Amino acid sequence: MAKWITIEQMSHHVGEEVELRGWVYLRTDKGRLQFIRLRDGTGFAQVVVFKKNLDPEAFNAARHVTQESSVIVRGIVRQDERAPGIPGGYELDARDFQIVQLAEEYPIQPKEHGVDFLLDHRHLWLRTPRQWAIMRVRAEVIRAISDWLDDHGFLRVDTPILTPSAAEGTTTLFETNYHDRPAYLAQTGQLYNEANIFAFGKVYCFGPTFRAEKSKTRRHLQEFWMVEPEIAWCTLEDLLEIEEQFVSYIVQRVLERRANELRVLERDTSSLEKVEPPFPRISYDEAVEMINRAAAQGVRVPPKDEPLPPIEWGDDFGAPHETYIAAQFEKPVFVHHFPTEAKAFYMEPEPDRPEVCRSADLLAPEGYGEIIGGSERISDPEKLVEALKRHNLPLEPYKWYIDLRRYGSVPHSGFGLGVERTVAWICGLHHVRETIAFPRVLGRLYP
RNA sequence: UCCACCGUAGCUCAAUUGGCAGAGCAGCCGGCUGUUAACCGGCUGGUUCCUGGUUCGAGUCCAGGCGGUGGAGCCA
Questions:
Q1: Does residue A162 sit in the same domain as residue A251?
Q2: Which one of A59, A198, A235, A378 has the fewest beta carbons within 10 angstroms of its own beta carbon?
Q3: Is A302 helix (H, G, I), strand (E, B) or coil?
């Protein structure tokens, strides 16, 4: 009996007779010679089927097998430079070929397709090499996130998805029915994280979050994954050091362990190799100056080569502003001390200058935009009540949140990193919809 | 919500001024022992998004609708 191995393991079995189980993704019919491209989830490999090496029935099966049919192939592993695949360089010289199920005419071909068609066929699109590579990078990003946090004293404490009230804006909430009372899908676990740090010191939550934004851009999903670390006894300055260590670790880990996948994606990794601490830091004030200086000089920004619009102090950045700022640096860049008005209610105002708050966003290079938003949180109960009132938020739902400041309040900070934007940046993708298996984009709930 | 663009075969796209709806790929049949999205020959394949209008005649022009894409705002 030939041993069943995976495509990933082929290089360790050269000269041996083995069995592969997988799906046909391409076939080249040369008459008495068939080239079958097989994938099995671990990789992509070529099976070479010479008529003289098989029973007539088995050869006939190989000759008529359709794309995406499930098959079991027995043969001898051979090293050959001409063999395509991932990782490639090894092929199977077939001795037997069995079809488990002959697939019907398959809609996705190894060629260009439109976005609408691909999203409607996401359940099948996932089988293609490019999507395979992206999902494997995503899994590595997630493992790197957990490993780094777990190894640095953070305790994972999961926060609820069904919540009674808004954490931030109310217009972007998905409402659901909680036994005849309204409940909302979580936009963030942060407020609960803040409760958890007083019990556990350093914590993080990691899960899906939901934003009912009417956003139709390459950076937005209705449902996305966010990791949110929160740290007691931590100032904004301490927080930025943690963030740059964390992000650098994630990037270097993917470069090290998912090189094959990045090659499939044709990612130029030279800019990723530079991602290590420290990251540049500029204040919002400096950023506004940089933007307005550039706008006055008529600087244009990708992707549409439009003139960079000037900005007024107090406004939040638009996409071209983020793109311009990020393009001035080789590494991710922190922009800190945003106007208090433009940010969420819980951010700590700078004591000597309350019009700005102790917040910082991290902008990824190459136009991938904001991948982290973070801040020091208000630690004084009275200042927090004031801030809630200033934002016209009701006090009652936040009673427990205010309580946290009444029983042993300490300076504390936290941030949220968006998994999809991080994966899009590392993979060099144009749109975050490819970074999650079943994306929830505006107007789409199938499959 | 707003702005721009798009909707023709299973897929990617053509169709001149309003004048017989076409090609490549996929599928099926045949040929080929090193293909890299093979190649060569043949066959099959249509509610031109929907509704209405103009016209001798509409894929093409007009109106409304539906669906999609890109972007803005907002955000990770």
A1: yes
A2: A235
A3: coil
Position of tokens 């899994």? Answer: A139
Q: Which nucleotide is nearest to A31 (CA to C1')?
A: B32
In A30-129, beta strands by DSSP E: 33-39, 44-50, 70-79, 85-86, 90-101
Instruction: List pLDDT tens digits, range A327-386.
Output: 899 999 999 999 998 888 999 999 999 999 999 999 998 888 899 999 999 999 999 999
Distance separating alpha carbons of residues A50 and A285, to the nearest angstrom: 70
Element holding A413 (H helix, E strand)? strand A412-418
From the CA of A436 to the C1' of B68: give the distance in Å. Answer: 21
- Spanning CA of A31 to C1' of B30, the rounded length in angstroms is 11
Q: What's the complex ipTM?
A: 0.88
Window A131-190, strand B contacts by Cβ < 7 Å: 168-169, 172, 188
Per-residue flag: A48 CB under 7 A of strand B? yes
| Tens digit of each residue's pLDDT (9 = 90 or more) over A97-154 | 999 999 988 999 888 898 889 999 999 999 999 999 999 999 999 999 999 999 999 9
> How many angstroms is C1' of B23 away from CA of A114?
19
Rounded distance in angstroms from the CA atom of residue A221 to the C1' atom of nucleotide B76:
10
Q: Does residue A442 lie within any of the structural domains?
A: no
